[in-house]
Amino acid sequence: MTTTYRHTSPRFRDIVRDFVQEFNIDITRDLFVESEDMQYVTEFVDHDLVAKFQNYHTSRANLEIFKKYER
């Protein structure tokens, strides 16, 4: 059995969309750490913006653990 921890509602993309709209953020390349070695994680350069998003996400995200039974 394996488990995953994931968003149930709202979807992560909706949390990001709402965050950008609520704080009137103009999305530009200079907001983000430049990827290295094919990274799949997007990270803000500004540590204050990181904290603001983490707080925003925590206040809105519903996360659940899902079990997957392997045969």
Describe the fold and architecture.
By secondary structure, this protein is α+β, with helices and mostly antiparallel strands. It has one domain. A two-stranded antiparallel ribbon has the order 1-2. The longest helix has 14 residues. The radius of gyration is 15 Å and the shape is extended.
Topology:
Blueprint: E1 2-9, H1 12-22, H2 47-60, E2 62-68
Antiparallel strand pairs: 1-2
Describe the structure using short key phrases.
single chain; 71 residues; alpha+beta; two-stranded antiparallel ribbon; 2 helices; 2 strands; 35% helix; extended
Strand order of the largest sheet: 1-2
Would you count the extended β strands for me? 2
Cα distance spanning the termini: 9 Å
Helix-strand category: alpha+beta
Brief rundown of the structure:
By secondary structure, this protein is α+β, with helices and mostly antiparallel strands.
